[in-house]
């Protein structure tokens, strides 16, 4: 029986009651067809964009990598795998890969370690943690190049960092001119810039850990360190995985900081892969070889993402 | 505040936190205050925390040396267009992937997700070539179209999808009973509920566009088309050395507005990012 109800306007509701079949209409324009059309239309801009600005360029970069292509000389010749052979023999490549690895590992370890430390500190029952949270987060919203320029000034031989070092009696090095201090500087500048983001994600995760667990651990006489290792770390491991994936991906994309602070130097000590790619393609006009380096970058990103994703089974305590 | 920590532990904690905060706060503070100092005072150590007397000469030179107002406008309008565009593209796609059943859905979602795996640095050479072949190099189109539709917007779509999935199905049934179509359901019911997720996406997208550096220096060559990050590095003297006072003034003007908005809305910023931005 259809439910008949009079509404305020006096209309009669003739919709079928729940559970009853609607009147059989063999309409072509069914709600399923309507959903099909709506779904496709809704995703069209994103799909067209992905096809045009992601998939097509990805195919092209592989195609270009098989060519000797100098933009200035206007050459575009198919050379097969020559560029890949050149890549393997490139005397700069070991140094570039080493720099990329140093930077990425250093950044991820320092960033996640500091983010977790800050999150634990700010998760204590202290007054004013919201203010400190804002302060630690603030570099995230400062323009990247502005931030880097300021640090470039502070890290000069006669800059503020060495001024502080001098106050405690140390003779600071010329940070951006020494091989390993340059890399360390770029890493630290980038960590301080972005660690707030991971800190906030860790804070949210820490607040999700049930207090009863710590209560129980304390009753059992577990130390704070044991509690941290046995309760906190396993329970926030999904967030650790997420932040490490984001941070690794970000580390491999670093460009502006290096372009502004060191231009890849001294020597090639801070020439990471993206910077090397930029130099080859847009400063030396080697689009073919630049594309080969792009393929290498893609392969590295893909491998690392897959590896991290695989590791989640062994690592991450629980996943929904 | 009912604290279980003894007083000494609390004092020690504050000490550690304050010390750690120095590298986070001091550079910004120093950048802004130094931009008002004469050049000689910028190099003084220990630095004065406040400029002795305000000097605006560096600010004046920012505008004399480059079309800085124009560059400021470029960055602002590009970031605004990209943010609005990304919100539209990602909300529509995220909604469809989460709430509408249609054939090919899963396959298309996988296709889109490929974008998450491809940093834009990988495709910069072919993108340059593509825009070059249609005569759009040295225009703002690449800086607008690629972030709005390409790889960066995929993350936004993913975030929106994760959010829309959590909405209860009854909402849509109610909408359907009321005779609303898909577009009306999306616009009048789902979208208003998605405000926190939209906020997080907007913040991410704006900052990403505002900070873009590789793409502008690859695509743009005329100073009046430059964006801010690119312009900041152009204040150099005849020997290529940076003009510090001018650079710091320009950097301050670039950083301050965003910083002010952040301080005013820090709770929405931080909690929005933490809770809707990247969960799931």
C-alpha Rg of chain B (nearest Å): 24 Å
- In total, the number of strands of chain B is 0
Distance from N terminus to C terminus of chain A (CA atoms, Å) equals: 43 Å
Strand-residue fraction of chain A? under 5%
Number of helices of chain A: 13
Mean pLDDT of chain A comes to 86
- Which residues of chain B form runs of ≥5 with pLDDT under 50? none
Which structural class fits the helix and strand makeup of chain A?
A: mainly alpha
Largest sheet of chain B: none
> How far apart are the termini of chain B?
32 Å
For the biggest β-sheet of chain A, the strand order reads 1-2
Description:
The complex is a heterodimer of chains A (320) and B (280). Chain A contains 13 helices and two strands; from the N terminus they run αββαααααααααααα. Chain A has 320 residues and is mainly α. A two-stranded antiparallel sheet of chain A has the order 1-2. In chain A, β1 (67-70) and β2 (75-78) form a beta hairpin. In chain B, α3 (57-65) packs across α14 (244-264) and α7 (141-149) packs parallel to α8. The radius of gyration of chain B is 24 Å and the shape is globular. Classes of the chains: A mainly alpha (320), B mainly alpha (280). At the A-B interface, α1, α3, α4, α5 and α6 of A face α1, α4, α5, α6 and α7 of B.
Brief summary:
The complex is a heterodimer of chains A (320) and B (280). Chain A has 320 residues and is mainly alpha-helical.
């Amino acid at each position: 029986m259809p439910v008949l109800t009079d509404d305020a306007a006096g209309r009669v509701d003739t919709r079928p009651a729940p559970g009853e079949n609607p009147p059989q209409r063999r309409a072509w324009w069914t709600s399923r067809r309507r959903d099909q059309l709506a779904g496709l239309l809704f995703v069209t801009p994103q799909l067209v964009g992905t096809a045009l600005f992601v998939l097509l360029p990805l195919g092209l970069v592989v195609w270009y990598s098989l060519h000797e292509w100098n933009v200035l000389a206007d050459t575009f010749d198919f050379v097969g795998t020559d560029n890949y052979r050149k890549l393997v023999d490139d005397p700069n490549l070991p140094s570039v890969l080493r720099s990329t690895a140093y930077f990425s590992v250093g950044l991820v370890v320092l960033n996640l370690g500091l983010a977790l430390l800050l999150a634990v500190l700010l998760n204590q029952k202290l007054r004013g943690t919201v203010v400190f949270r804002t302060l630690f987060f603030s570099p995230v919203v400062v323009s990247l190049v502005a931030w880097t320029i300021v640090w470039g000034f502070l890290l000069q031989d006669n800059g503020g960092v060495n001024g502080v070092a001098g106050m405690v009696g140390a003779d600071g090095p010329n940070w951006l001119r020494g091989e390993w201090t340059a890399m360390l500087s770029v890493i630290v500048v980038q960590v301080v810039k972005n660690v707030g983001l991971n800190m906030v994600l860790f804070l949210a995760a820490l607040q999700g850990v049930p207090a009863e667990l710590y209560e129980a651990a304390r009753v059992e006489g577990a130390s704070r360190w044991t509690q941290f290792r046995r309760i906190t770390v396993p329970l926030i491991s999904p967030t650790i995985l997420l932040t490490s994936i984001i941070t690794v991906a970000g580390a491999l994309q670093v460009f502006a900081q290096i372009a502004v602070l060191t231009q890849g130097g001294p020597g090639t000590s801070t020439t990471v892969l993206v910077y090397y790619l930029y130099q080859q393609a847009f400063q030396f006009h080697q689009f073919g070889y630049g594309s080969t380096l792009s393929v290498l970058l893609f392969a590295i990103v893909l491998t690392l993402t897959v590896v991290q994703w695989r590791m989640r089974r062994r690592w991450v305590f629980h996943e929904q | 505040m009912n604290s279980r920590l003894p007083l000494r532990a609390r004092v020690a904690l504050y000490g550690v936190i304050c010390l750690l905060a120095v590298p986070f706060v001091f550079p910004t503070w120093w950048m802004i205050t130094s931009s008002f100092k004469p050049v000689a005072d910028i190099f003084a150590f220990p630095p004065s925390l406040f400029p002795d007397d305000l000097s605006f000469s560096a600010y004046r030179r920012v505008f004399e040396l480059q079309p800085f107002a124009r560059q400021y406008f470029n960055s602002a309008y590009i970031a605004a267009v990209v943010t609005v565009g990304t919100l539209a593209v990602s909300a529509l796609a995220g909604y469809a992937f989460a709430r509408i059943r249609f054939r090919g859905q899963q396959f298309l979602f996988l296709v889109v997700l490929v974008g998450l795996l491809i940093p834009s640095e990988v495709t910069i050479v072919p993108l340059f070539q593509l825009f070059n072949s249609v005569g759009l190099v040295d225009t703002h189109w690449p800086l607008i179209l690629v972030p709005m539709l390409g790889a960066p917007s995929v993350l936004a779509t993913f975030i929106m999808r994760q959010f829309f999935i959590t909405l209860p199905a009854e909402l849509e049934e109610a909408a359907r009973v009321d005779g609303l179509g898909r577009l009306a359901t999306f616009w009048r019911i789902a979208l208003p509920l998605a405000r926190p997720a939209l906020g997080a996406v907007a913040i991410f997208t704006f900052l990403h566009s505002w900070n873009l550096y590789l793409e502008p220096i690859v695509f743009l060559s005329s100073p009046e088309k430059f964006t801010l990050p690119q312009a900041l590095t152009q204040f150099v003297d005849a020997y290529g050395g940076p003009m510090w006072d001018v650079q710091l003034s320009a950097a301050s003007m670039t950083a301050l507005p965003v910083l002010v908005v952040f301080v005013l809305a820090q709770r929405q910023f931080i909690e929005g990012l933490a809770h809707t931005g990247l969960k799931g």
